[in-house]
Every structure is written in structure tokens, then in C-alpha cells.
Amino acid sequence: MRTRTTAAGLADATGVTTLGDPKDNTAGCSQEAAGEEPHANDCAALITTDTVSIYEFGTPKVAAHWVKEMPKDADWRQVDRFALAFGARDQALTSDERRDELEQALGDLVAKDQ
């Protein structure tokens, strides 16, 4: 399951056609994608939408590192090798209930993919 597919799967699983204006921002979290030397904590992919940013990492351990290191005033949620973040663009408007729903839906997608 790749991140762009994950964004589409989350939209479908939560009853909407899109999470809103998906953008590939992988270069913002990966030194390798930005043309620099790869780093062990690089993300594999980042899709930012109006609702949520979906980060994919190589392992759950790297995802946990990112979630732990992010500012405490931002809402970051780890799901396996993914992290969901609600700090960019219009994401602050995403309700707590919707955030919970997206987290649960991603957990279900990951479980189905394994």
C-alpha cells in the first residue's frame, strides 16, 4: 500500500470521494527525495491534503520517532509505519471525531494489507 493509494483508501473508507487537494510533499520529509544524502529517518512518502498529512516511513520504529519528535501542540498519530498529522493548511479544521475516524480507518487498511 503506497501513500497516494492510502489517501484514496482513507477517503473511501470514511465515505468521501477525496480528502481534498492531495499534494506530494515527500521532499519536505526526505533528504533523499530532496536530492541530498539519504538519512535513516527519512520518510518514504508524504501526501498532504486539506484534511490530513499522511506520512509513510520504512518501519513503525521510524514513524514512532517522528511522532515523538514533533511539537507537542500539533496532533500527530502513529498507525504502524504511517503517521497522520493535522498541522498544515486547513487541517486544523478537521474535527477530533474525524481525526479518530481517519486513524481507525488507516489501522483497518494496514491490517488488511498485511
List the helices and strands and how they pair.
Blueprint: H1 3-13, E1 23-24, E2 45-48, E3 53-56, H2 60-69, E4 76-79, E5 82-85, H3 96-113
Antiparallel strand pairs: 1-2, 2-3, 3-5, 4-5
Structure, described:
The chain is 34% helix and 16% strand. It is an alpha+beta fold and 114 residues long. It has a 5-stranded antiparallel sheet, with helices on both faces. The longest helix is centred in the C-terminal third of the chain and has 18 residues, at 96-113. The termini are close together.
Compact description:
The chain has 114 residues and is of the alpha+beta class. The chain is 34% helix and 16% strand.
Q: Name the poorly predicted regions.
A: none
Mean pLDDT: 91
Query: Mind summarizing the main beta sheet?
Result: 5 strands, antiparallel
Supply the helix-strand structural class.
alpha+beta
Defining key terms:
five-stranded antiparallel beta sheet; 114 residues; 5 strands; single chain; 34% helix; alpha+beta; 3 helices
